[in-house]
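Lecture 7 notes: from sequence to structure.
We start with the chain below.
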Amino acid sequence: MKKILASILAVVLLGTMAISGFAAEIVSGTAQEATNDEGSTAQVTPDGTAIITVSDEDAADGIVDVPVTLWDGSDITAVLPEGVDDIDLVIPFTPETQKLGWGVVAYYVDENGDEIVLDNTFTEDGKMVIFNVPADTVVTLENRAVKFDDVPEGAWYEKYLDYASAHGYIVGNGDGTVEPEAPIAAAALYADILRVNHAGEDTVGEDWAANAIAAAVEANFATGATGDLNRQQAIDIVSAFIGEDAVEAGIFIGDENAELDPEGDFIRAHLAVISMRLVEFLNGYNK
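Predicted C-alpha cells for the same chain:
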C-alpha cells in the first residue's frame, strides 16, 4: 500500500539535550530520550541501542519521525500499538554517519537465523527511511558500501553507488572496479530490477546474464532490447516492469535541466540512481 510521507517534523539539534518534538544529538557516555510531535518516544543508550515506542497517531500514518539521531552500528526496536505489525521509520543520522555516504543498510535476523535486509532510502538532508520495520524486532544499522577503485571521491554518483553496492544491486566487476560511466546492456538492468524486487537469486555467478534475461521474459518486462542501452530503452524496460510510465512515476527525472536525453547512453551510475528510486516506488514512498 502506498504511503504519502508527511512533512518531517524532527529537527536535529547538535550537541543539545532532548527537547520534545525535536531530534537530539546523543551525548557520549549518557543516555538520551525524546518525544516527537505525534507522541512517539525514543530512548537511546550510549552504545546506540534504541527503543522506539510508536504512538497511535504515527501508527495510523504508517510512518514515524524518530526524535533522536542514530548512527552506523545502532540497534533499533520498534514497539508498536497492538494490532500493528510494522512501521516505516525516518532516522536522523549524526554528521559522522552522513559522511559515510548512503551505504548503511538495516537488517534483522529472523527465527530461522536468516538475515533479512529491509528496503530503505535516504533523504538529501541526512535521514534514512527504513520501510516495514517489524514490531519488537532488533534491527541493526550497518555500513556495507563497497568502495570501488574507479569511483572518484565526491563524484555526483558516489553516494548512489554506495547505496546500490551495499544492497547488492550492483556488484562490480570482481576486480575492485565498477566502470561507473560505462554503458550497460539490458541484462544488467534486468538483473538490477530483479535484485531490487528481491527476486535476483540467480543473477550472480557465471550465468547471471542469461538467468536475468530469462527471468525478465517470464515476468513480462523484457522488451527485446539488445546491446548497450540508451536512456529511452532503459525507460521502456522500467516502465514495463512497474506497469506505468517510469518518467511520470519519477524514476527517471533527467539531468539538472530536466532533459532526459533519450538517445544518450544509460550508464552504470544511472543504474545506481534508479535502484534507489525503484525501491522508493515499490514501497509507495513520495518525497
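Points to note: The chain has two domains: 12-143, 158-282. The mean pLDDT is 87.
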